[in-house]
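Consider the subject:
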Amino acid sequence: MKLTRKSSVKDRIIDAAWKLFLEQGYEHTTINQIIETSQTSRGAFYHHFRGKEELLFCVAYFFDNDYKNWQDNVNPNISTLDKLLEFNAYVMRNLEDSPYRPFFATLYGLQVMTTGTRHIINPERDYYKLIASLMKEGIEKGEIKSSLSYMELTEWYAIIERGLTYDWCLNQGRYSLVKYGQRMIKSFIDSIRA
């Protein structure tokens, strides 16, 4: 996953922040350093962001770019349930192997405390749209049988992944997200299999 973006002021601020986060850590990066590195102004910074934590929240949308790429390249000939299982493996591997892994615990902690947008659970993210489209496809093809709507199934799937990721952060990455994710999502998929 790369943080490559166009060079609008907002994008320059995001790119500078993440460069600094990787080099010196989130806690040791100041807003002044971000402004200086992005070659923008304090006014420009606060026009786009309420604080440094909002820059950390942007990572969810960068992961979404990878998820869109996965969707564009998934084998269309496999079952929807297999796509859901493969997507889980992709998401978990992406998180586990991410250079941004050291920031996930801070990200989750700040998202719990924020009074602003909770980006991790934003239903407008491509992550949720992709899962919803697969759940809907599975129901329409008769592969999924549930009393829940495709949107409710989407939420259940996402809750499992978020919960596992949060626990993984609490445990400081002591187990494989891919391995545990596959077990948990497979159990969920088996419970909705037609």
